[in-house]
Write a structure and sequence with these properties.
The protein has 179 residues and is mainly α. The protein is 65% helix and 0% strand. The chain contains ten helices and no strands.
Length: 179
């Protein structure tokens, strides 16, 4: 019972690494309950962090994403410092940087998302195409566009994108002739 575990928990420093792990997991499980208020969920996530559960940063992100987006993104940045095996924070941060026009940062986060996920993600490929095209890294951009367009995905988005000033020259580039 998670309530019993956290009720008996003392300061994190007095426990072994394994005990901190289980106590932190108990806090995370309690944080995920539907009946929690956002304030309760945030408190439980913060307690999970005290016990080393870095994935609690994801909970803090979702709690704060609507009311304080920049603070929420900072939680994701902190989470990525722990090199999580979860691609979601990298995708969210990459998309945010792409939207802000920080193409180099977007590329870094999105490449890490791709590495961590070890799976096909047409959405990540689509964003990598955009970031790399805008950085004039045309070979990689072409490769990512090809992957994004597999299975008929993003064809409509490509037509819309071609109307944008930054992408009008794409039809003249040899890397994109086949698309």
């Amino acid at each position: 019972n998670f309530e019993a575990i956290v009720a008996k928990a003392g300061p994190a420093g007095q426990y072994s690494e394994q005990a901190r792990y289980y106590i932190g997991q108990a806090y995370l499980q309690l944080a995920g309950r539907e009946e929690n208020s956002p304030e309760q969920e945030e408190l439980l996530c913060r307690k999970a962090l005290e016990y080393g559960q870095q994935q609690a940063y994801m909970g803090l992100y979702f709690i704060n994403a609507q009311k304080t987006p920049e603070a929420a993104l900072e939680y994701l940045r902190l989470y990525t410092l722990s090199s999580p095996s979860d691609s979601v924070p990298y995708v969210i941060l990459g998309e945010n940087e792409l939207d802000k026009g920080n193409y180099g940062a977007a590329d870094i986060f999105l490449r890490e998302a791709k590495r961590v996920a070890r799976a096909q993600s047409p959405r990540v490929d689509w964003m990598l195409f955009q970031a790399n095209y805008l950085m004039k890294n045309y070979d990689f951009a072409g490769e990512m566009l090809g992957r994004a367009l597999e299975n008929g995905k993003f064809e409509k988005e490509l037509k819309t994108l071609l109307a944008e000033k930054e992408f009008r020259g794409i039809v003249k580039r040899p890397e994109f002739k086949k698309y």
